[in-house]
Write a structure and sequence with these properties.
With 192 residues, the chain is of the alpha+beta class. The protein has one domain: Protein Transport Mog1p, Chain A. The chain has three helices and seven strands. It has a seven-stranded antiparallel beta sheet with strand order 1-2-3-7-6-5-4. It starts with 6 loop residues before the first helix and ends in a 7-residue tail after the last helix. 46% of the residues are buried. Residues 1-25 form the signal peptide. Residues 34-44 have a biased composition (Low complexity). Keywords: Signal. Residues 26-59, 73-98 are annotated as: Disordered.
């Protein structure tokens, strides 16, 4: 029997546990070999030394349009859930709508961390795998206990954006979705 998972508490808990990556036999983050036709957003880049830096120009809720970007995973809530309670963080999440209570759940979250670099990703049980997403430094951290996965992408030396995938039945599947979403979102991020 599947359990229902509320979006914001899961995102908040995952934010506190912060970041793990899917273990693989080879180091690095797998390239899904899919091309993204995502348009790049144009944003004014802040200096990393300014308060907020590059991360201040990013609205995580504007980086994903579920009806266009997440259709292969099902239908998602029409509006993102935003949770901006932690200092230096801005987040957004989208929850898959389940037509049958036995369908697998899925929550996709984006968390902009203004004061945490990719190097600060924590091992939450599945190790941390360093790699790149479209040339940006990245780190993937799976959480086998809760079947979620975080993939952190560098914004600049002092900040990152996390792609968090949770509420799935399998941590490896969660990491695969996180990778696919990361390759979709990265071209929309401002360059440092």
């Amino acid at each position: 029997m599947k359990r229902s998972v509320p979006v914001l508490p899961v995102l908040a808990a995952a934010t506190l546990l912060t970041v793990a990556g899917c273990a693989t036999e080879e180091p690095g983050i797998a390239d899904p070999q899919t091309s993204s036709s995502a348009a790049s957003s144009t944003s004014t880049n802040g200096s990393p030394n300014q308060p907020g830096g590059i991360s201040a120009s990013i609205d995580p809720c504007a980086l994903i349009t579920p009806a266009e970007d997440l259709t292969e995973y099902g239908r998602f809530s029409t509006g993102p859930a935003s949770n901006d309670e932690a200092p230096g963080e801005t987040s957004c999440s989208w929850q898959k709508e389940r037509e049958d209570p036995l369908d697998e759940s899925l929550i996709v979250g984006l968390i902009v961390r203004a004061n945490q670099s990719v190097g600060t990703v924590n091992d939450v049980g599945g190790g941390v795998t360093d790699g790149e997403i479209n040339g940006r430094t990245a780190a993937e951290a799976p959480n086998p206990q809760f079947h979620d996965c975080t993939l952190a992408i560098e914004l600049d030396a002092d900040s990152r954006i996390d792609v968090l995938v949770t509420a799935m039945d399998d941590v490896n599947a969660a990491c695969e979705v996180a990778r696919e979403v990361a390759y979709l979102v990265e071209p929309r991020l401002p360059k440092a």
